[in-house]
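INFO  loader      accepted 1 record
INFO  loader      residues=388
INFO  predictor   begin
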Amino acid sequence: MHADQSFRDGPPEAAAPAVVQLIDVDSARRSGGEWERLAAHAREPNPFHARAFVLAHLEQGLLDEGRTGLCVVKEGERWIAMIPFTRGGAVCGWRRIAAACTSPYMPFSLPLVDAAAPEDWADRLLDGIGRDLAGEMMELPKLALGSRAGRDLVAALAARGWPHRVHSPFSRPVALLAGTYDAYARQNFSRNRRRSLARLRRRLEESGCLAQRVASSGDDLAAAFEAFVALEDAGWKGRRGTSLAARPEALAMTRRVLLDGAGELAPRIDLLLLDGKPVAASIAFVMGEAAFMWKIADAEPLRRLAPGIVLEDAILRNAHRGGAIRLLDSCTDETSPLSGLYGARLQMGDLVFAVPPAPLAGPLFAAESLRRRSRGALASLAQRLRRG
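INFO  predictor   done
INFO  writer      dumping tokens
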């Protein structure tokens, strides 16, 4: 099926305990809350494929609604697995291919899978994709390969004999809480690192009255978001034109997600205040036992005192004091400052697969590998030139 063709529901398989449907966005909006229920009960949460996040992207034109749909595995009316995707959303070699929904503001893709889903959920999800994309290819960008869902998908592809490759693999810093903060620090930080964190906090405290505030709803959340926007736009992202304030559609999307989707996504913004003035802000989404550390900004004039690191260390410390959170996901790669705070790693990568018959899969995989190597070399050269 070409990119400009409409979505269609797949024929039901009456004899099977579960059926697969490809549905368009309008049908998903009328899903009777099943999308929200699935996100809330997913065995591995993914706030970036939750209803509020995807619909906010569509409303602001960050995803093409005409080419976006959902592949849903159902038992009766109950959704047990789902992945949103866009036709032509990625490139493999010289060809545009389908891709799980992603954007600069969606740091990974992972199917939503109900905690009680049957063992063959991945096989059934591939049934639906294969039915509609026969002879074509699909990418799951920044898939958590080390997750249970990621492993299930790769195993299902291998069992079917569908050609697949992982491009651009990397390790994402994550923090696995260890009972107490002191135990975590001893396990993950060197003695010098522990001393450095204490020194940074002490220097900030010597500069004024240091305090932390958490906002999770209502006017507090709205005010904290405006503080984040101001901090981010005043720094290097503002100068480079990549801050939320510099991109009206991204700003509107984020405001919608935070303020209108709060009940579904459980956002929180942590602020670090110096003499009552925000000097660092962190936006996160809490789902189940995981907190996804989506964005951080800090006051550039205080960069030598690392207020952002001090705030993230305080968040890590507070998470150990109680509550349901057991994992902090950095939502970034190993170049992040959080890599020094988060001691565990989650394997990530762009999973690309072909739905047979796909005679060009091999050449396309090879061309894509070459394209990525060339792009990486050019980016490295540009970085060296900027430094020079």
